[in-house]
Design brief:
The structure holds 2 protein chains of 2 kinds.
Chain A (H helix, E strand, L loop, with lengths): L5 E10 L2 E11 L4 E5 L6 H8 L7 E6 L2 E2 L2 E4 L2 E4 L2 H8 L2 E4 L11 H11 L5 H14 L15 H14 L4 E5 L7 H16 L3 E5 L3 H7 L2 E6 L2 E6 L1 H6 L4 H14 L1
Parallel strand pairs in A: 3-10, 3-11, 8-9, 9-10
Antiparallel strand pairs in A: 1-2, 1-4, 4-5, 6-7, 11-12
Helix pairs in contact in A: 3-4, 3-5, 4-5, 5-6
Chain B lengths: L6 H36 L4 H16 L2 H11 L9 H26 L3 H9 L4 H31 L11 H12 L3 H34 L4
Helix pairs in contact in B: 1-2, 1-4, 1-7, 2-4, 3-4, 4-6, 5-6, 6-8, 7-8
Classes of the chains: A alpha/beta, B mainly alpha.
Amino acid sequence: MPDPVIRVRGLTKRFGTRTVLDRVDLDVAAGDVTCIIGPSGSGKSTLLRSIAFLEAYDEGDAIVFGRLMGWRETPLGRELAGERELAETRAPLGMVFQHFHLWPHLSVLDNVTLALRLVSKMGRRDADAAGLAMLEKVGLASHARHRPEQLSGGQKQRVAIARALAAKPKVMLFDEPTSALDPELVGEVLGVMKTLAAEGMTMLIVTHEMGFAAHAANRVVFMDGGRVVEEGPPRPLFAEPSSPRLAQFLQTWRERAL
Amino acid sequence: MTGWLSATELVLFAQAFATTLAISVAGILLAVLLAMPLAVALRSRSALLRRSARFYTEFMRGAPLVILLFLLYYGGPSVGLLLPATTIGVVGLGFYGAAYFAEIFRAGLSAVPRGEVEAARLLRLSRAQCFLRIEVPQAARLCIAPATGQVIALVKESAVLSIITISELTKVAGEISNMSFAVVTPYLTAALLYWALVELVARLGLRAERILSATESRTHA
């Protein structure tokens, strides 16, 4: 098996005295679509945010394409990586957030092109062309001149996906991308994500959409209490959970779904 | 002229108005310039910087402007600081006002959702780029209304400069009152002139607000 693109080992994160991630191990191989499911407070989002180093994890390793994320090993222990080093390690990652976090003072197109111009040093014309192509991909090229506040939640999230994709990431992290959406808007976002998955994008998705996890993922990770309780291909995992905790979680979900 | 102002008094008022305007503009410009690094320091990751800035703003907001001016004007010479009264007026207004503007700017910057900055950082914008392209433009729009209010407050507080012998509006109104034995006319004139100045500031503030929101809605910012 080739080296995983993301390798998490013994990842531990505490908020004060509370341990939210407890020695988590996780591998993501190229082309994997991995869904992380679990109850609220199980540490799913913190795991994703730690991999991107939006949270500074306390122990263990989050290794992205062979590089330790966020920390620098020194003979005296770990110290925070410098700004440039962190940016380089983050380069293969794209991220989409529950609450979109579009920049409200910029047009839809500028949201997608800002990083292209400032980070990739593209000219305005090239950046706009690339940005429009990304918006086309999520079906929103016609909204390029709109402002984020003029869009529906589903459209905002598609713009956020386009913004992340424009930087040509190798792995996409999704942190509950549909949890803030009205039910009838969930489909358009999941649709874009399915297309991405079909194109071979490596994806790590924290989600409550069990249907999506069952059909689009090739691997599902169930977390509870800051630990990975169970993982495997979706079909057997959903059909015959081996841990009582997952069985109970799925049972609750099925009851609520009816 | 009976009841209203003589030609000499009109000239004195005109000069005083110009002085109030000039000192206010200079003092407020200084205040805003000082407030920018101060606001950044108030949000710094360095505790030392943060606490120093916090101490400064708390002290300045805690002390009346009159006291600060007395300290500079009467206390200055005892430590070899001999400055003209107008300089003290501008510096006093500037250092005093900076504390208030810094708090306004800090609040504006803090109101920008953290997630927007995280999104920018993950797209590898540098801290400086995040600050200038994401935080400042949004904070500016949020700050303009409270900052306008603060400018108005400082213009009116400049009346205090009369006690360190600066011939601004309030001082001149008092002098004319003493000379002419009239009370209502000179002070009412001064009040109307302050009001005119404040009205001007308020209108400029509204215009700035409109311009900033127009920039925001432009398709290419």
